[in-house]
Amino acid sequence: MHILFASSEAHPLIKTGGLADISASLPDALKRLKQDVRLVLPAYLSVKAALKTRRVVQDLDIPGAHGKVSILEGILPGTRVPLYLIDCPPYFDRAGDPYRATDGRDWQDNHLRFGLFNRVLVKIALGQAGLDWTPGIVHCNDWQTGLAPALLSLYKGRPPTVFTVHNLAYQGLFPLHVVDDLMLPPELLGFHQGLEFHHHISFIKGGLAYADRITTVSPTYAREIRSQQFGYGLEGLLNHRAHDLSGILNGVDYRHWDPARDEHLVRNYDANDLRGKAACKEDLQTHFGLHVRADVPLFANIGRMVEQKGIDLILAAFGRLLREQEIQLVILGNGERRFEQAVRQLAQAFPRQVGVHVGYDEGLAHRIEAGADFFLMPSRFEPCGLNQMYSLRYGTLPIVHRTGGLADTVVDTHPGSFEDGSATGFVFEPPTTEALLGRIHEALALWRDHGIRDRLIGQGMRQDFGWDISARRYLDLYESLR
Ligand code: ADP
Ligand code: GLC
User: Fold this and answer.
1) Which of 139, 250, 307 to mutate to test ligand 2, by most ligand atoms within 8 A of the CB atom?
2) How far, in Å, is the centroid of ligand 1 from the Cα of 365?
3) Reduced to 3 states, what is the DSSP secondary structure of residue 292?
4) For domain 2-251+467-481, which CATH number applies: 3.30.450.20, 3.40.50.720, 3.30.565.10, 3.40.50.2000?
5) 275-461 sits in which CATH class?
6) The whole model's pTM is what?
7) Are strands 82-87 and 69-75 parallel, antiparallel or unpaired?
8) pLDDT at 271
9) Mean pLDDT for the stretch of residues 451-474
10) Of the candidate ranges 48-52, 79-83, 157-161, 309-313, the one whose mean pLDDT is the lowest
């Protein structure tokens, strides 16, 4: 099957979060299932710099674009997946991340940048981009690609579309007047089924209203987004489309995330021999200047420092715990300034117990997964979440809020689940400091019993969240649309 997979980021070329992991590992998994899948990304400056082997395959004439538009072709590094890059230097040749300038503020012309990206997607989908390939299915991801299903819906004989929601909180909302800049046909406007949303144009609504099928990245999140609490006002539309909406759990690329062969670790290990994990803990403690002690429990968190992730709950809980107990905490992440400052302050107050790296560091993320005893994910909502699955494979016990993909991947430890061998971590609710603290105390009590600890770790490490099952589910979905 010819599948065009459209995304705004993909590992290892450009990454701000889990979308990048999935936009690389899912096409790769589909390729292994012998599908002709091709990935398409905007040609950001950093991507062009990272992708040495590429060639211009086509120049395009896109009315209204503020510069020359062309399609470059290469291969996604580490895979055999062909890659198209949509190049338009005035839009994409910039420092900063895909969405924000270096001062942390959104680019003012994001509607034009991603508007252009979507219009080129439509050309490729319709076989009008001068490529010697046309897709039989177009798979779009998140708001950055939401206009394509809407625009495509206007054409007869177009390929079917799938739209995956990785995070409903980010919607691509722009003031109504961008309609002119984007040259949007009037028949796509309108509130109930169209792109309008409370005096804005909503890119994500393009995907939700017009794609032939909608998926999201875990079964629980697929249910949650149909409720007022998680739907952000889009729950009506999502309920209307309930028959076309499903949840497919994200997979893990164990070629990158497996302690038995992870190149970032001082020593590799697997479920049969955890001595390497002890070495990784020492390495992590040394790196952050913490007391190097195997008997002190080490907690960790990696992620974007935003309200979603509950970083404030970790700060509040550990502000108390660190005074009461000999424990350690390592945090890697960046995001909102207030949270970055607060974690730095915590590290200053407890220099031998708390290690903080404000920034983005792929290698350190792997070392933390391996070196920690517990991984904290108190997310208020979590469409899927990858780090809890990585943690399971690295023998690092996850402590998670019961929501979205966290609820679907971590089995809480209680006498029944421990006895039947299904327990893999610790699950709490509601997302409050009290509930988190309560579960941490219980987890610590069990962890101090080496027999229980080893059994839980072993159960977690044997879980398989590889792509085999989920990639086939996507394939079945595509096939149902042919
Ligand atoms: P989200 O996509 O909401 O940010 P996920 O759990 O799906 O959350 O994916 C986050 C991914 O980004 C993981 O691969 C995680 O290791 C990585 N990550 C997040 N922040 C950082 C950071 N500061 N340094 C390195 N990796 C990070
Ligand atoms: C989003 C979600 C996260 C999910 C990731 C990949 O960024 O916040 O939960 O794992 O996308 O699907």
Assistant:
1) 250
2) 8
3) coil
4) 3.40.50.2000
5) alpha beta
6) 0.96
7) antiparallel
8) 95
9) 97
10) 48-52
